[in-house]
Amino acid sequence: MFRIMDDDESKTLDFKEFQKGLNDFGVAVEKEEALKIFSLLDQDGGGTIDFDEFLTALRPPMSNARKQVISEAFRKLDKTGDGVVTIEDLQNVYNAKHHPKYRNGEWSEDQVFRAFLDNFDSPYDKDGKVTLEEFINYYSGVSASIDSDAYFVVMMRNAWKL
User: Fold this and answer.
1) Among 60, 53, 56, 43, which Cα is nearest to 6's?
2) Does the pTM exceed 0.85?
3) Which residue ranges form the domains of the chain, and what is each CATH number?
4) Alpha-carbon separation of residue 48 from 40, 59, 72, 74, 160 (angstroms)
5) In sequence order, which residues have a C-beta less than 8 Å from that of residue 37 and are 6 or more positions away?
6) Angle 30-59-81 (CA atoms, 0-180°, nearest 5)?
7) Over the stretch 73-106, which tens digit does the pLDDT of each residue have?
8) Of 2, 28, 56, 142, which sits 20 to 30 A from 66 (CA to CA)?
């Protein structure tokens, strides 16, 4: 849907493309209502909707069981218990020396840790610190592709050795 709406292939939707896209897909709304929806989707307030913003808006809500296991994994990473996962937290739970780019000398341990954190960090504010909200946001994307709560919980428990 996003690619079809992205007429200029900029990988973002401006309001004109968004409004035309709604119309093309048979969603008849007044301009004012379309503008309200557009503003809600434009999370960073940049005047366009990027693919991540679009996907975030379409994700179904997660069950409490999923949120709980995600929180458990976050607490495991957050060794200091301050609500933020940093490189210092990772040093006790993630062995960078097994990473291929560390092994071939391309990256330092800190670069491996930073790349790991960047997976979970907000795409709008890559600060090397991951909050519970950012961690949950990352896993809500994973969650959207898994139908069964039981399977998601087992996958998380196995992945994080919970």
Assistant:
1) 53
2) no
3) 1-58 (1.10.238.10), 64-160 (1.10.238.10)
4) 11, 19, 35, 31, 36
5) 18, 22, 29
6) 130
7) 999 999 999 999 998 888 878 888 899 999 999 9
8) 2
